[in-house]
Design goal:
Blueprint (H helix, E strand, L loop, with lengths): L10 H4 L8 H12 L10 H10 L4 H17 L12 H9 L1 E4 L8 E7 L10 H16 L12 E7 L5 H9 L1 H13 L5 E7 L3 H10 L5 H4 L2 E4 L25 H14 L1 H5 L10
Parallel strand pairs: 2-3, 3-4, 4-5
Antiparallel strand pairs: 1-2
Helix pairs in contact: 2-4, 3-4, 5-6
Amino acid sequence: MSEEISKTPTEDTSKILNHRPDPIKLEEFINRIKNEKTFPQTMNNVLLERYLKISFNNVENAFALLKSGLEMRAKASYLFTDRDVMSSEIQTACTTFQFVPLPKITKDRYKVTIIRFPKCDSNLYDSVQVIKAALMMFDACYTIYDYGDDGFVEGEIFVLDVEGYSFKQFLDLGKNAKTLLFYTSFLQEGAPVTLIRNHICNTSTILDSIMSMVKPILSKAVSDVVHVHRYGNGLLEFIDRDVLPSDYGGFEKSIDELYEDWLKVFKSKRDYLINDNHWKLSEQ
């Protein structure tokens, strides 16, 4: 990622972070978008706030990051069109992986999202549809304040639990390595996310193969914050116990229960997600 659209907070900027972006800067950002005729004019306001928030109220940085994301979506339109939450493809994908934004944030005001692969019929697993569903879930998250009705977190922690990931699923992912690499690049270069840490737990030799595919395109900022744990309870060293699900030694509900709660929110965003006009660039 270029320095101009870096999402990594510095020591100075971290001292002036607020839960919401500056309203004057937000108005300037929205006007900047309105004047860009190729940009969609129906983007969600919470989404725009999020872009500005992680850019530390720098309008040009927020605009550059948003533009990068929209252009990347155009280049991989097969992942960003026909996105019906209730379609059979997405519904099946949602049974082969779990994307769970945890309801509580850490003491440092970080949000934790766990992605895991429960045991399933590997014949149903389609890595492209899983990645598509995951990107839809990210988009759903972007339109919701992180806590309360008006708050954003100061960064995000991602946990990848690969305990149930089978060799057959890995072979399917390998066939679609290009999509996996795009997904990794998009989260680094086009998404309104400030990454704090990546945790990978319940590791196996399959994980080593996956990492060998994505490691070459990981930025140094991302690779430096990857932590690998042989077991799930290794997360307790880094994440508050009252934030983590009971499956990982925490005090929250089980990951299955939390996933069911999240799916209800996800399905409520159907009309938003199915409308391509929210992120489709127009031609001049």
